[in-house]
Specification:
Number of helices: 3
Number of domains: 1
Radius of gyration: 14 Å
Order of helices and strands: EEHHEEEEHEE
Structural class: alpha+beta
Strand order of the largest sheet: 1-6-8-7-3-4-2-5
Largest sheet: 8 strands, antiparallel
CATH superfamily: Regulatory factor, effector binding domain
CATH class: Alpha Beta
CATH topology: Multidrug-efflux Transporter 1 Regulator Bmrr, Chain A
């Protein structure tokens, strides 16, 4: 799978979070519930100071096969006290461009990414959903590198 190396500035993400892991049998259910809470729970429309209309799925706080998943939006400043705030660190990232079904295309991409020999930093990997077309989505996946 092809990717490009990019340097990113720090980003602030506000949304909802949960802890899971690749070996957690409830991982997909946990992550799906976050997406439902964000959109069906009305949280997405309540987030203030959004920098764009993209949605972020952030994986951070990696620890012993577990990590925190935060689903939300990038903001210019944190003025959303009732929600979770996470920071995507500035630095070097491998950027993968994915097109297709939001669920299956992303799952297939992650399966390949996990098998690649990337010099990962595990500081904050994220998916950036550029549109909301479920079947024909444009998604960038950023993997933090050392």
């Amino acid at each position: 799978m092809d990717y490009e190396i990019v340097n990113l500035d720090e980003k602030i993400v506000v949304g909802v979070s949960a802890v899971t892991g690749n070996e957690d049998p409830e991982m997909e259910t946990t992550i799906g519930a976050l997406w439902s809470k964000l959109y069906q729970g009305g949280i997405s429309s309540s987030i203030k100071n959004r920098t764009n209309e993209y949605t972020i799925g952030l994986y951070s706080d990696y620890n012993d096969n577990k990590y925190t998943v935060t689903v939300g939006h990038e903001v210019s400043k944190d003025d959303n006290k009732e929600l979770v705030t996470k920071f995507i660190p500035s630095g070097k990232y491998a950027k993968f461009t994915i097109k297709g079904n939001m669920v299956t295309a992303v799952a297939e991409a992650w399966k390949e990414i996990w098998s690649m020999n990337l010099d990962r930093g595990f500081t904050g990997d994220f998916e950036e959903y550029l549109n909301s077309d479920f079947e024909n989505s444009n998604i960038n996946i950023y993997i933090a590198l050392k």
